[in-house]
Amino acid sequence: MRTLRMLPLNHVPPATICCSHQEHFSSAFAIHRQAMSAPPRPVPHPQAIFSLLPLNENAHAVIQNPSNYHLLSNHIDGMHKQQVVLNVGFQIGSAARYTLATLGRNGDIIVDGPNISRIQCSFEILPEYDVVMLYDESTSQTTKLFGDEATPFKPGCKRRVVIGERFNNIIGMGGTGCDQVQFEVVWHRANFKGKEEADHRIESPLQARTVDNVPTVVPSEIPTPDQWPPIQKPTIRHKALSVLGEGSFGVVYKVVDVDSGKTMAAKAISQPQNGFHAQQKDRLEREIFALSQSSHKHIVEYIHWYASPDKLWIFTALKAGGVDNLIDNQYFDRNSTEINELLDQMLQALDYLTYNGVIHRDVKPANILYTPLESAGSRFLYQLTDFGLCNSIDAARSIVGSPMYQAPEIQSQAGARQTCKVDIWSLFVTVAFALNVNQYRSRMLNLPAECVEVALQAARAPELQTIQDMAEIDPSKRPSAAQMLVKCYNGQGLTTPRNEIPIYPEDTFSMGFPTGFPSPQPPSCLAYASPPAVLNAHGMGTDTHNGLQVPQRQIGAPNRTTSVLRARSRPLPPTDSKRGPTQHGFPSCLLGDGESPVHPG
């Protein structure tokens, strides 16, 4: 059979069509003729992602080309004016799976002209991130983006860039000014599922074509810090897609790298007119250093940071949401197994930080992100984020963190050196809050003493029996993350070597506390696979500490662990590790005098 050069079907000479395919092409030809004579659709096609609105005379000629009639629809613009547009989406049977459409003299959308290439440009889907990228396929590189929010193609790189609702939405092509044909991108569905919709795509004989080089989209990954040349200071050309959250120290956006199509979370910290003062600068340095130096499954992945003239940007991996969202949907109320996964994974994260000499100091549901998992076992991967308040173990002294989750020593021992045990208390409160123990989430807590009292009440609840030690008032009696992993999960996921986790003989330990330090009841259980033995009840009294009435158990009460956790039946008093703290050297420059920041590490 003679090979066909693809032309509009009404231009194909009948004699060139093989007899065995005559019926197929005749049917397609009839459909095409019907499409040519039909008026534009009253509304955009339901599978269209966006449309191309003509902006000049040559673009209107593209609209009027009979070969494009099947892609036309009406569109009402912001001025309530009806326009005819070209629909671009999964209804176009393009040759490549994730190609929405090609434009050019031989494209899915026919664009004629002496300065237009056979394939001038194409719109491609990145299914990993559900974004659309514009590729310049022209031999003379005459595709260009226009407008105030336009991002030009990056020199020396593959000529592609992400397009979005509020950026990169005016496209020109052809001629020395790349403006012979100009369209505006009008979005219909910014949120789409690229992989799912591509799987259900049906190729139409109208759009079947032969192209010498069908573009293959392979998203480029952002290089990790150790892959960057020492003198290179890379920046991420990004555009904000939506706001994920706001706090007193910045706004977190969902952003897209316009060069790779990768979506990320970016914290933007606005720079004061006179620059960051010393305390702000120190806090930013801590966050950047802690993130850049951390590499653990349960700590959110750090990507990059840089400073623009008015903001400092910190980029991390984008996740599905926060544990606070799951709590709002009462997810843990009906899923006791998942709360075990949350506890286990966060203990692993805290043990990693402790072993590396870092205190997070703001563990709470909003700072724990989740990612759905397809594999069996845990439904979610949990990761700790937001290290803006973190500190090295030998430097943490200030009163920081969210009051509800603050350990009591932060308030009662202001100025004293803090330990990793403040994070253990915060994780306990997070678990109690997630389970809504004693209607935790409905309690109105205004004072630090009230927060401590409610936490101690939750520690006496049967469902928190095994982890009750995490709510010890005296931080020296509170277990470390490593000790809790050994006790509850047989040490799986430890970073701290087993031989560095302290175990003391029975006669050195008393479950009582120094005068003025109340304690919750003995440990209990979080719905493990096999129910642990019920611990003996102990006499309860009350004590007064800084005006706070709290329950206290008798001095010398035994602290037995349950056989289901495969721990010794003898007491295992938790104490701090004897290992010296890791010393950190923070970046010497965060925002120099008019200088670009040097990437830490």
From TrEMBL:
It is an enzyme of class 2 (transferase). It holds the Pfam family Pkinase. It catalyses: L-threonyl-[protein] + ATP = O-phospho-L-threonyl-[protein] + ADP + H(+); L-seryl-[protein] + ATP = O-phospho-L-seryl-[protein] + ADP + H(+). ATP binds at residue 267. GO terms for cellular component: cytoplasm. The keyword S-adenosyl-L-methionine does not apply. The keyword Transferase applies. Its EC number is 2.7.11.1. Keywords: ATP-binding, Kinase, Nucleotide-binding, Serine/threonine-protein kinase, Transferase. It comes from the Eukaryota. GO terms for molecular function: ATP binding; protein serine/threonine kinase activity. Residues 548-601 are annotated as: Disordered. Residues 238-490 form the Protein kinase domain. PANTHER family: FI20177P1 (PTHR48012:SF10), STERILE20-LIKE KINASE, ISOFORM B-RELATED (PTHR48012). Belongs to the protein kinase superfamily. STE Ser/Thr protein kinase family. STE20 subfamily. This is non-specific serine/threonine protein kinase. The lineage of its organism: Eukaryota, Fungi, Dikarya, Ascomycota, Pezizomycotina.
